[in-house]
Every structure is written in structure tokens, then in C-alpha cells.
Amino acid sequence: VTDTFCIGLDWGASNLRAYRMDCDGHVLEARASADGVKTVACHAWEEALRRVAGDWLEHAPKAIIVLSGMVGSRNGWIEIPYVAAPADPAAIAGGCQRAYLSDGRPIWFAPGVSTLDRDGVPDVMRGEETQIIGLPTQARHTVCLPGTHSKWATVEHGAILGFSTYFTGELFELLARHSIVGSLIVDGPFDRDAYLDGVRRAGQAGHLLHHIFGARALTVTGGLAPEHLSSYLSGLLIGHEIAAALAMEPGHDVTILGSQQLCELYAIALSESGVSAQIGDLDAAAIGQFRIAQSLMARP
Amino acid sequence: VTDTFCIGLDWGASNLRAYRMDCDGHVLEARASADGVKTVACHAWEEALRRVAGDWLEHAPKAIIVLSGMVGSRNGWIEIPYVAAPADPAAIAGGCQRAYLSDGRPIWFAPGVSTLDRDGVPDVMRGEETQIIGLPTQARHTVCLPGTHSKWATVEHGAILGFSTYFTGELFELLARHSIVGSLIVDGPFDRDAYLDGVRRAGQAGHLLHHIFGARALTVTGGLAPEHLSSYLSGLLIGHEIAAALAMEPGHDVTILGSQQLCELYAIALSESGVSAQIGDLDAAAIGQFRIAQSLMARP
Q1: How far is A124 from chain B (nearest CA, A)?
Q2: What are the beta bridge partners of residue A100?
Q3: Is residue B122 within 8 Å of residue A217, measured between CB atoms?
Q4: Nearest C-alpha of chain A: how many angstroms from B137?
């Protein structure tokens, strides 16, 4: 393991992924742990880090250690200010802050990225920026990171120009768990037709607020099977998100980055809108951390 | 009390309002009870009815008794099918169903009203129809009934032509109580400026899904005081509802019918959209029940 150039930790709210990389940016080894920022007890950050990557640290004493994600938030290890978009790997490296482990070894925390939408309202990401800058560099394209708070970023030659966050995943959970619509849901396997009905509904007249109630009315009046309601709601919310995101930034290649299941859902809905999408490599975070490490080496 | 022509019960999910009316439709007496459909235990419907209006029944043995609202739903006393819009008082009376109290006295349950939106998706109301047909008759106008599931109806010469439901009130509760946005709320008095900021935000680029996350980002980055977040979210959701409803049915007089507090909120937001609104009489339900009773008398 003498060829370890950097160790990257993509440390989110609910899990932690660790990568060991060589000086060409190849991932030599990858590990995952359930020690998410929300679950690390009593600020036992260093213990959690050593649990997942202690042997790597020991065997590669000179490797650069880069941490990205919610570990750098107010509820994480230390809070790192956001850098403002546009942000490329060098700008993100410029916003990194150094801290030290108990044995004096330096570790680097990546900042999140902030932006203002066209009306001056702020938006923020923390962790996604490292995934985005790890994608293959190309001309202007759009990166979609579906999830609890989905992000749509406009990226050009490796720089994040701007982005918008959508409350889609959390709203789905709220509706499914706590609402009068969700109370009608009967568990069942994913139903592609119902999902597509929801996606198409998003393109019809009315508004999300009307369409949500309509999902209930449709189910109560027998037009939608309770076993299909969850798939329909998923399509409805994702359809709204995609329509809104494409309206903000139309006509570019879309790369989707996320869990395989979510990526497939988004690809189906994008295809329904006539947009072909490619699914990005989930280990993009590792490449992003590698690029940050390279920039850190180049810092004066 | 010999002049009681009809007794109306506007019996919703969480409360019950009772009216005693003369043959000119004047309300002689009004009462309220907390015996909502959700809280009446063990199907003790008749007991609840007699608790609020037993003496009226006794003293006016010939008065027509009309019940409207969720009491006629699947979870109510008996389930009454919806009548399809367009629906005027005669059509609603035509959909009434008779039942009998334990002493053989007839009571009449008003139906709800159903409609299909332009894309064929069903929508339903139960209780609101009786309020709407109790408003002063006029040429084509719009009636807004804000609440958990706000209704916007197009009404012409006393007939409900169609309507749309918006999930606004319930979404506000979900966000305030269960979401990562609501977790930032600090209690405070209603703030008109923050409310108007939310209303204006609804008119900006993006989408509700983006604007909801923006409320969090704005608060976290210091652009919105946590004490004002609840007012802002209220304005944001109501602003979206109003914009959507006016897009579906623009340019008509709007009558708002609901609690004084909600009516004032909606009037402020409508005024911001350049629409002047009048606030309707909350006892419109009584007049609606009176009109149904008149039509029932005229039934062959």
C-alpha cells in the first residue's frame, strides 16, 4: 500500500464512504460504513474515521486525507464556510480547511458550495460538489443528483456554474408517512405504468398542490389502485422536479448521479420528457476528492 | 319556536354547527359543538345530533332536517354518493338521501359534489357545496374556501360549474411539524412582511419544490429570521395556490369563505396579485341548507 496518494471520505448524514487512491486517481480500495454524521455519538469523529480507514492511515502516513459532505457542516466535525459558485476544483481546494488528528496528522475538510438563484435567494450544497467535480470534464452540461433534496447543477469544463435544490425526496416521505394521501397507500412492488401516469400528470394543467390532492381523489374514486399510489406519487413529484429543472436550464446533456434505483427512476421520467440521460459513476466523489488533493498539493 | 321551517347541521370532520331557520331563510338560532365526525364515538350519531339540537327537534316536529358535510362520507353516519357538477341547489337536493331517527323522524343527508378537471382527473367536495350555494346569487364568480384542502369553485347563478382542490393547508402542517424546514421554525407572532415575502417568492422563477428548500437556505444563511419562517412559508404556499387557481380561472370576482384569520391571509395575498376579494358570510352553510330544504319541499 505504499502507492496511496490520498484517502477520501465522502461523509454524509447517514453514511460514510472511504476511498484509497493512487497518484493517477485510481481507486485502489473502497469501503462503506453506517457511521453517518447523524449517528456518530458524542462527537467521536476520529474514532469513526479510524474504524473505517485506520489501517490505511497507518500504512500510508503521507497520504493526503480529504473529507467532504455533511461532516463539514454545523452538525458535523467542524463547520466549513461555503465557497460561492462558480466553483472548480481549485476554488473548492482553496476553501478547504485543515484540522489535525490526535496524533498531529493533518486532515482537510472540503467546503460546500453556495449560489444565488436569479431572484437572489441562496441555495447550498455540501458533498454533492465533490461528486460533481469528479465527473469526466466536458462542455456545458447538467448534473442531476436525486435524493432527499435533489440538486440540479449546471457544469462547464469541471466548474459548477450554479445549481437549484428541490425538496422532492423529503416531500415524498412526508406525504407517504404523514399525510391523508399517504394513508391510502397499500404496499406493493414498483409499478412502471403508475409511475409514468404520475410523471405525465405533472405535465398537465393545475399545480403540484392540486395534483397531490388529485392523487387522493383518484384513489378514493377507484381510478388508481392503492397498491400503485406510491409509484404514482413518486412519478408525480419527480415529474414536477424535472419539468422545473429543465425549465431553468433547458437543452443540455443530463448526467444523473445517485443510487441505481433513483437514477433509473429519473432516467425513465427524463426519457418521457424527450431528454436522454447518462448515469454517472457513483465513485465520482472519489475522483472529486482526488482532484481536490491535487489542488491542495499545488497550493503555495 | 313554532316558526322553525328547517334545521340544518353543517357537520364536518372536526366540528358541528347547527342552525334553526324560519321559512324566509333567516337564522333564528345557531349553535356549535365539538362533536366532529372524527370524534363521535361508537357511531353515536343520533345522540350527538340530539345533544346539540334535541330541544329544537322536540319543539318543531315538522321542521325539515338537513345534514351536510363529512357526516355523509364513508367515515360518517351514512355514505351519500356525490352528484356531478354542474350542480345547483335543486341538483343537490335531488342527490339528498333520507334516513330516519330512532323515533321514525326523517332526516336528509346532502350529497357532496364531484367534478373532473380538464384532464379527466376527479375532484370532490363534501360540505363546501352547501356553503357555496348559500352565497348571494350572482353572475359568474369564483369562490375560494381556504383550509386543509382549499377549494376554488367557479359559480354562476347559484350553480357550481366546477372546482379544484389544493393541498395547501395540509402541506403547511406537514412542513411545519415534520420537515427539516419546519425544524428551524421559532414561534413568533404573524409577520406581515415575511408573509408577503413568501407570497412574492411564489411568483418568482423556480417551482414550489425549489422554493420550499429555499426557505430553509434563506433561514440557515441569515436572510430570514426563524421567528418569521412560519409566516413566510404560509405566504409561499398560499401564494402558489392563488397563482395556480387564478391561472385556471382568471379575471373573476373572488369571494373567500372560511375562518376570519384565513380569509384575511388570502385577501392580503390576492390583493398582492391585484385581485380584490370579498369575504363571504360563514353562515352561508345555513342558507345553503335552507335552499336544499326548499328544493326538497318541491320534490314530487
Answers
A1: 7
A2: A106
A3: yes
A4: 27
Q: What's the pLDDT tens digit per position in A179-230?
A: 999 999 999 999 999 999 999 999 999 999 999 999 999 999 899 999 999 9
Class of residue A100 by CB neighbours under 10 A (exposed 0-12, middle 13-18, buried 19+): exposed
Give the angle A187-B40-B112 at the CA atoms, nearest 5°.
Answer: 70
Phi-psi region of B127 (alpha: psi -120 to 50; beta: other; left: phi over 0): left
Q: Quick check: helix, strand or coil at residue B170?
A: helix
Beta strands in B204-273 (DSSP E): 254-256
Calpha distance B117→A128 (Å, rounded): 40
Q: How many CB atoms lie within 10 A of CB B100?
A: 10
Block residue for cell numbers 453506517:
A34
Measure the CA angle with vertex B49, ends B15 and B258; round to 5°: 25
Pairing of strands A16-21, A27-33: antiparallel
Instruction: Name the residue type at position A72.
Output: G
- Surface of A (36-95) touching B: CB under 8 A: none
The Cβ of residue B39 has, within 10 Å, a number of other Cβ atoms equal to 13
Q: Which residues of A touch B240 (CB under 8 A)?
A: 207-209
Q: What share of chain A is helix, strand, coil (3-state, %, to 5)?
A: 40, 25, 40
**CB-CB under 8 Å, B117 with A206:** yes
Nearest CB among A124, A209, A221 relative to B171 is that of A209
The edge-to-edge listing of strands for the beta sheet with B83-84 is B83-84, B113-116, B122-125
- The closest of B153, B169, B141 to B245, measured between CA atoms, is B153
Number of neighbouring beta carbons within 10 Å of residue B110: 31
Q: Which whole-number Å values give the CA distances from B231 to A160, B270, B276, in the listed order? A: 33, 16, 22
Q: What is the ipTM of this complex?
A: 0.93
Q: What's residue B1's pLDDT?
A: 47
Distance from C-alpha of A285 to C-alpha of A257, rounded to nearest angstrom = 10
The pTM assigned to this predicted structure is 0.93
3-state class (DSSP) for residue A9:
strand
What is the sign, positive or negative, of the torsion defined by CA atoms of A282, A286, A287, A291?
Answer: positive
List pLDDT tens digits, range B44-64. 999 999 999 999 999 999 999
- Bridge-based pairing state of the strands B64-68 and B6-11: parallel
> B277 is written with which cell numbers?
376579494
C-alpha cell, B167 = 393541498
A87 grid coordinates: 466553483
Phi, psi of A7 (to 5 degrees): -120, 125
Give B128-140 pLDDT, tens digit per residue. 999 999 999 999 9
